[in-house]
Write a structure and sequence with these properties.
143 residues; mainly alpha; 8 helices
Length: 143
């Protein structure tokens, strides 16, 4: 189950922006907001977007446009962190530890893992089935 199930694209993006606003204002954060703010803090390239207002939050990010979707990127980080924290699929926490050691830190390991997660989710959507956890783990082990 996703951290963000049932939210529209606009609601999700507003949640990122609000979490970042509260973090910068040193206001209390809900646990999920703290997780979001931590991911944003590791991506200074996205900070101006989140601080620029509602028009930036409504932008379309398509492969044809040649721009990476910052919300997808940060969402994949959050998904990997949730997977590692729960070790689901079983074995991902160990893979993450190994990659963290190899790449020098957990954030760099997540970056290495992002594409494998995105491919797994894409396959799942394209074939209208649940994500293949074993294939996902195979992709991660191949890194």
């Amino acid at each position: 189950m996703s951290l963000f199930t049932g939210q529209s694209r606009e609601q999700l993006r507003r949640m990122y922006s609000e979490a970042w606003r509260k973090y910068n204002g040193r206001q209390p954060l809900e646990p999920l907001e703290a997780q979001v703010a931590a991911v944003i803090a590791e991506h200074p390239e996205y900070m101006p977007l989140l601080e620029s207002g509602p028009e930036a939050l409504s932008a379309d990010y398509t492969p044809q446009g040649g721009r990476e979707n910052p919300f997808l990127h940060m969402g994949l980080h959050l998904a990997i962190r949730e997977q590692v924290a729960t070790d689901r699929p079983a074995g991902i926490a160990q893979i993450h530890r190994s990659l963290s050691k190899r790449f020098g830190d957990p954030h760099a390991a997540e970056h290495a893992m992002l594409e494998s997660l995105a491919e797994t989710l894409w396959d799942s959507q394209r074939c209208a089935r649940a994500p293949d956890e074993q294939r996902y783990l195979e992709r991660l082990r191949a890194l």
